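Dear colleague,

Thank you for sharing your sequence with our group. We've completed the structure prediction you requested, and as agreed, I am returning the results in plain text so they can be pasted directly into your records. Please verify that the sequence below matches your submission; if there's any discrepancy, let me know and we will rerun it promptly.
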Amino acid sequence: MTQTVTPEGTPQDPATTGQDLPSAESIRLIERQVESVLLEHPDVLDAAVVFRGGTLEDAPAEICVRCGMDGRYPGLDLDAGTGVCGLCTMYEEHRDEIHGYFGDTEAFAARIRERAAAAGSDYDCLLLFSGGKDSTYVLHQLVRLGLRVMTFTFDNGFISKTALENVETVTAALGIDHVTKTRADQNRVFVQSLKEHKSVCNGCFRSLLDLANQLAYDRGIPSIVTGLSRGQIIDERLLWFYRQGDFDAERIEKQLAVGRQVYHRVGDRTDSGSDRAVDEVEVVDYFRYSEVTKDGIRALLAETSEMWSAPKDTGFCSSNCMINDVGVYVHKLERGFHNYESPTRWEVRLGHLARAEADAELRTPVNIHRVKSMLARIGYTDPGTREALGSRLAAYFVVREGATTDESELRAAAAARLPEFLHPEHWVRLDEVPRSRGVVTRRALPDPLDGAGKRLQLSAHGSAALVGGDDGDGTTPVTAAQQALLESGRAGARALLLDLDTRPALVDVRRAVLAVVLHHEALRSRFALRASDGRWRRGTAPAATAAPVAAVDLTRRAEQDEPALLRALERKLRARLDPAAGVLAQVVLVERGERPARLLLVVHELAADTAGWRVLLDDLATALTQVRAGTPVSLPPAAAPERPAGDTSAAAIADTAAAIAAGAGAAADGHTALPPTAGTPARHDGGSLSPAHSRALAAAPGGAAAAVAAGLRDVLGAAFGGTALSLAVADHTATAGRPARLVAAATAARTVTLPAAAAGPGRAAVGLTHLGDAAVEPEDGPFRAARIPGLRLEAVPAVGHHPLEVVLQERDGALSVDWWSAEPLHRELTGSGTPQQLVEWLTSHAQNMQEHTP
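Please find the predicted structure tokens below.
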């Protein structure tokens, strides 16, 4: 279907034309119209506007010649010479390792029986049974293996009638105990899943697993069996590890176990039964242990045709669910590719599905009329209508060097010139627009839904209410430091692992943490841009969403495995933080059997600096002690919520910036050329300075941060040729007579005149963070900082803001220096020994200061 366009290029209302989706010609007119408005802005050097998704009938411009994968899949590289995609190349290079993750049915049956025997269960496993072809095949195989099976069906409101009939027929014929459950608010879950993932499957599977976990726990069943295909297992569980170059099955399994606990615990449930269900119930993917192909599955179902009928009212990619097509439709229109593209092509690579059949599955159009009816039923705006055009537009822009123009200013410019339904929803700032012979290379543009180019993404948790308001909208201005951090996109989080002196009940920890969260409004702050003036504003989120407390049971884990498990858990908790939604803290009780329990805390930099951490931990110690004694929690008065990060006045920022400038000294001509950052940063252990040398640096003008700035200038200048350096500084330390303060990157860079480095327009080459003293817990209390060899949980800088991040922290009086960078800079720094050279420079500088101090 097409959509008519006026001479000015504005699509007419589909209601008057009887048409929905715009044609390819109309799409290009829309893109050009919005691009022309952006290019009229004096600070915009280049711009590209992309209408995401195109039309359902669009054929892929390029596909992998081996697996047939759509070239529009994000991050997919097609070799120019062979036409083979990067995932096929990865598979060929690591074929044995990838197949090594999978086992056989004997191993599967032994694993299930062993767990059931240990638990004394009446059932060996609970099968997630949809009545579709894959789960029906699995049920027959479980019975043939002699396993005692109970089946569970989640009725999401859109299960095929034929699939439900299959459930009843097959379970009755095989004598299987069966349970069906539903969820009253599942339509809300579908809408949320479509907003966050552009798919209904993510939210549906979450509901399914939550209910199944609780059912299995209540019935004493230790194992849940799924019918996920091998392609889905790789795509949903393993591919992230493969992209990081990790193919070790044992190591992956350990991290997946922790990830599953966080996935189910860090949410909206508060009862301990749900937590125990996650601990005691294991999820096992049957097809991890079965080599059967799609043809083999169909052959068995043909043998049992008197029990099972193929549903005719579902889409091609599902044999049980009707709303699955809604996810296909929305994902294709709003992201531009099929949401089953990756798992289905993995089935092709593994030899479980013929490429022609995969093409048929992925290219078969959905039933538009039925999809639109289901969209209306659940309450999600049809992305194919005129009103949704803006939600599918992504604007990429490049601004002149030194210009302060940002997304909010360009949004306002576009709003003044374009009709409302053509206001782009996605905005991404680039250093340059990728082009080939003047034509935009669309595949090289970052996917805005993956967060590329975003400083802070507003979530769907209600933060939109903060945008566009006035002084009466319930929000307040952010502090100077918070504003600078939000503008720079550099705000991160700090983690701390505590050893508890007892093994407290989860409910007691939750009561204590809730008291602290209610007491400190800073922990419930949420942040958003106000459209009227482009300034960041702070509102307050409900306490229930601010600091969920979960529990992870490591009782059965060996103590030597804990560092890796805790590190993975800490990364998961960081990912859950969402300043736009008011989620600024995460807490997990780590249960360890007879060993002392631990508490893992992650708090966002926007909510607390070093001094703030001390206050929070003092209050948490008080609350835990009072809860343990059975007395009401009573905490001392909290700091004003509008100043959660200490002294962030203009004077404080200017003083520190000037000190850093003095410490860095005058820069010579030239600049430090740093390679661009890419991928996941790796840490360099730069070493540490002795307590005596650390004290000397702290007493210098500007403190340790100023000394390190000067040292970075010299050692990086020697390593890369040149001495000029542009620094972005976040200082959390306390100085005499002044509380800890937060000095943000962008503010310091504007105040201090340092020559710009080769790090992109308006960006500093190096991010420098001083976290201060690691000893922030109270001396007398129910916990102390855990000391685990090889485990450090300092703030990990976000990827992509600066080519190099340097993090300072005091430990037992000694100043440690950590460097974070991506390849190829990581390799160059390691080869040149630059991190160690900085420590040597600082040691020599401290000795000179001590020698010349009267």
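Summary note from our side: Residues 610-629 form the longest helix (20 residues).

Kind regards,
the structure core
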